Amino acid sequence: MPENDPLFTPKLTGRDYTTPDLRAKLTGTARFADDFRAEGMLVCKLLTSPLPHARVTRLDTGAALAMPGVRAILTADELPPPADSVSDSGAVIKASPWAERALTMEPHYQGEPVLAVAATDEAAAAAAIEAIDIAFEALPFVIAPLDSLRPDGANARIDGNVWLPPEKPGEQPRVGKLKWTAADFETAGPNRLPLGKAAAEWSYGDVTAALSEAALVLDETFVTPNVSHQTLETRSALAWWENGKLHIAVGTQSTIQTVPAIAKWLNMNADDIVLVSEYTGGGFGGKITASVPVIIPALLAKKAHAPVMLRVSREDEQGIGRARPSLIGRMQAGFSREGRLLGLDLSVVMDNGPYEQQLDAAISGRMGSLLYQPLAMRWRGTAVLTNTPTRGAQTAPGGLQVSALIGPLLAKAARRLNLDPLAVCRINAPEGRAPVGPPKADGTLNAATSAFLKQALDRGAEAFGWQARRARPALTEGPVRRGIGVATGCFVAGTTGFDGLFVITPEGRVRIHSGIGNLGTESFSDVQRVVADAMDLPWKNCEIVWGNTAKHLAWSCVSGGSQTIHAMSRAALAASLDARAKLREIAARTLGGKPEEYTVGGQRIFRSDAGQVGMSFAEAARRAIELGGVYDGHECPADVNKMTKTSVAALAGQGLLAVARDTFPHDGQTYSYVATFAEVEVDIETGMYRIVALHAEADAGTVVHPRAFAGQLGGRSMLGIGHASRQKWFYDHEHGTPVSRRFYQTRPTTVLCLPERFTWGSVGIPDPQTPIGARGIGEPPTGAACAAVLCALSDALGDDKFLRAPVMADAILAAVEPETWRPAATLSANV
Amino acid sequence: MAIIRDGMQPFDLYQPTSVEDALTLADRLGADAWMLAGGLDSLERFKDRLKRPKAVIDLGRVEELRGVRREGEDLVIGSMTTLTEVNRDPEIRARFGLLAEAAGEVASPQIRNQGTLGGNISQDTRCWYYRGGWQCYRAGGGTCYAGESTQGQNREHALFGVEGCAAVSPSDTAPALIALEARLVIKSAKGAREVAVEDYFVGPDTDITRMNVLGTGEVLTEIRLPATWAGVTFYFEKVRDRPVWDFPLVNIAAAMQLSGDRIDRARFVLGAVAARPWRLPQVEAAVAGRARNAAVDAAARLAADGAVPLPQNGYKVALVRNLVKRAILGKTTS
């Protein structure tokens, strides 16, 4: 590439625009999985477990099958056995014996699917389920993780109660048994997390020395909530078979990566799956590659020889819809007189649910080390299995929890040290290539690609008017108490190594084939603005093909962990550079001279020293077809993913084919950050409170699409507010079943609950380790907003008032009138 | 038999356009029929398969059940008038602002557009055990899971009148109507009857399986507001976990006739503290004839008299006292 040829000149990137899916969404023509219909379509309903842990001892489906309209019943023994999978590097990942399956004869939570019925209509399917003769043997169950860790506590699974690290290097984590001693519990007392033997731990620096030398040591315990995801669209799926191929319409956070996931669950060849997912009504992490229940309609469709729709209702979604795990955290933290966090001893117990190990506990340690930069740190974590619904990563998994655990702790330290909480946030904020735990094998720490959180705190404080608000006298008369809070959040914000793919057609247009899921963040489209800029094209000349793997899509990242803007803007640029190189070569071969003597611009490729000598994109595309080989996709780079290769082969000959894997340099781990400021007014006579102002200031690199960026900051802040204040999760511990199962109880907060004044901003400093400069923004607002609201509540009512979130009216009243404090379930993850 | 709580059972749908037709249908179909108002409570229970009517009589097309009109000094509200309409009606706002305010606090804008005044006062309890299909006393079973089980979840349950059932009345408008001494017109094929709204509601001591007196074949047609409390000083407040789309933890509706600062007479009614709206006659008697400031402490003390908190709802005692205090003095600002 010529030295003076810039990688990328942002003209469209960074500006608002009309996304290609907007009209369909606004007019209602967008089709979500539930909207699909097929001739002869059957519908299926699930028979779910009424018990938290049980074994099916009798099952007779005869009467149900004989009912009018009933076409097929699928049971767990008809599922393909769990399959091994192969990573991109070729490593075999053994199938886990503890993985969630679509159906089971040993349900591990109330609401878990046992079997499925396909019938001509929902009424017939429901009636058939009631006609099934089934009996369960109740098995021991446990709802609260700490109960399971007690010496005589029940185990959620027959073979254990916790996830343990691999026995040998290279092996996978395993389920085993871990119990703490009665002395562990007795030493801790009722309101502190016992410090029994943890399943995993790491450390760096001398934490004991740091705590002993600290001017202030705090020892705090806090419980973050279990939270149902409750995306707007439930996880419905329509499946049918044609000529041996499975066609399936689902909601997903990655169109392309859901194909191998389903192939694994069904133990079939990925080439025989066509996945349709143009629109997904929210993912939150629970639909990263859809989820395993989507194979139910696929198997029923095969059995019944008809298309089958699994229409997942809210009732189903309460069970199978994924939930964020609660962390019970204990933080022993030592501060200098200036508020610097000298040592942090963080212990967490996670409510893992019954299946795959969730990473929230481990990530809480990593994010804690980054976000608060303790000079010495120890993390200890135990993922405890419980008979509650399957957990799944939700926005900033582990990141939200650690902000909720430690954000209020910093604020308390500030009050004890007579410091400004903002100053304590700032002095502990990561900066530049900040170190990140856990330590590597050689004892050193990893490094972030960049961090400008201090700048975000400074800008945010100004926009929020922090000092002016702080200077006001406290409200001490009347029923209203006012509090302000500032907190920070961070999370992973990008990955690398994915593929970009587009075709310059003989008409001179650019058709971009994207495997990114479209779950409402607009990143599937936003990253392609880079193609337009890098190719110097008007946006109207670009067409994005997405949402259907029959349309030959590129291997893309999953839109989880806010990777997309970072990962796929890089991939888009990589493909663009491939296109520019091919255009130059085609021009040189056609018009003479050397490739580096040509420039791309104005939808042409022309000689740099003689602009009239050149060819249009349309001419170049036709010439690419004539030349064949790499130019029109008949040859494909070796380093792209095999699914991209399949797509390239299918697209070969349609024009100039640009395809490349992102190999741009990248040194460090990519994270984004948010500083959030909140003010609450608490009515101490009713326990209700209002968030009167909230400002979120982001450090997420270059902003690619401001309107979508603002939507992410706002929406994810609202999600965090829901965790702090609203989303209910109540369990009957005697029977092991949830009682708050209505959507109005578990739903995320909505636009009707917006803070009265909500503002946002962005530092906008490009990340130096990615050519576009952009990092993801979806994750960190959640933890920052949750913690900022919790800090503001403590500022209003005093320290040590709340032991858990969400903080609802009864907790506020209990804080004001401690005699109403409910003694039960204080440290239980499930109230 | 396996249990499924998900999926509506088919039923015959009738959509009469007159009260007369609705009553004829109700008479003919008897106990098999279900009267449908806005549908927000009913459809949920159908979908849960806890109620399985063979026939549903949808009152949504009966125009004569909608609207607000004046009859002499009375204001007459059709039972199918939506909560949004009640909230916005100029005459209700001018004379009976208490009801307008209560209607405006129900759920969310979308639900208020669909939900009706008749439906809101006739809805079933939100007890999470009962709604979840647990076989409690109210559902015909043998225990109260919220009130009698040692680990029952009862933070949202009753303080008063727990006679085998700790469920609470979830209505926001019912306390307001009781405070206003509304009367309800109930019709059936056999004729019409009028009941004081206070007598419309049924506690578990009377009948543990029902929340109101509406019988088979009967339709609530009108809510009549007499002039008795028109234009007096009102207070309504609803405490809930979420600012919108939530049921009350406790609500209060109060009407006070004042002479200067003296309370001549008053009515105080709480919601969500018992299976029926809970009037506070002792408080009413204690404040009558007294200045507001002089009356407030005794009133707040008396408000929670007889309360028997469950393990997790003790906070409601404080709430009840605070809300009565605020109803008398008004909400002060810091």
Apparent shape of chain A: globular
**Low-pLDDT residue intervals, each spanning 5 or more residues of chain A:** none
What is the rounded distance between the termini of chain B?
59 Å
What strand line-up does the widest sheet of chain B have?
4-5-8-6-7
Structural class of chain B: alpha+beta
Largest sheet of chain B: 5 strands, antiparallel
How many strands of chain B?
A: 13
Question: How big a fraction of the residues of chain B is strand?
Answer: 15-25%
Count interface residues per chain for the largest interface: A-B, 63 and 53 residues
Write the layout of secondary structure elements.
The complex is a heterodimer of chains A (831) and B (334).
Chain A: H1 22-27, E1 42-48, E2 54-60, H2 62-65, E3 70-75, E4 85-86, E5 92-93, E6 113-119, H3 122-130, E7 133-138, H4 145-149, E8 162-164, E9 174-176, H5 182-188, E10 200-204, H6 207-213, E11 216-223, E12 227-228, E13 237-242, E14 245-250, H7 255-266, E15 273-276, H8 295-304, E16 308-310, H9 314-320, E17 323-324, E18 327-335, E19 341-353, H10 360-372, E20 376-385, H11 399-416, H12 421-427, E21 435-436, E22 446-447, H13 453-464, H14 466-471, E23 480-492, E24 499-504, E25 510-513, H15 523-526, H16 529-534, E26 542-545, H17 564-591, E27 598-601, E28 604-607, E29 610-616, H18 617-627, H19 642-651, E30 656-661, E31 671-683, E32 689-699, H20 706-725, E33 731-732, E34 737-738, H21 743-746, E35 758-762, H22 780-797, H23 809-816
Parallel strand pairs in A: 1-16, 14-15, 19-20, 25-26, 32-35
Antiparallel strand pairs in A: 1-6, 2-7, 3-6, 4-5, 8-9, 8-20, 10-20, 11-18, 12-17, 13-14, 13-16, 18-19, 21-22, 23-31, 24-25, 24-30, 27-28, 28-29, 31-32, 33-34
Chain B: E1 12-14, H1 19-29, E2 33-36, H2 42-47, E3 55-58, E4 68-71, E5 74-78, H3 83-88, H4 90-95, H5 97-104, H6 109-114, H7 117-122, H8 128-131, H9 173-179, E6 183-188, E7 191-196, H10 197-200, E8 219-225, E9 233-239, E10 250-259, E11 262-271, E12 278-279, H11 281-287, E13 290-291, H12 292-303, H13 315-329
Parallel strand pairs in B: 1-3, 2-3
Antiparallel strand pairs in B: 4-5, 5-8, 6-7, 6-8, 9-10, 10-11, 11-12, 11-13
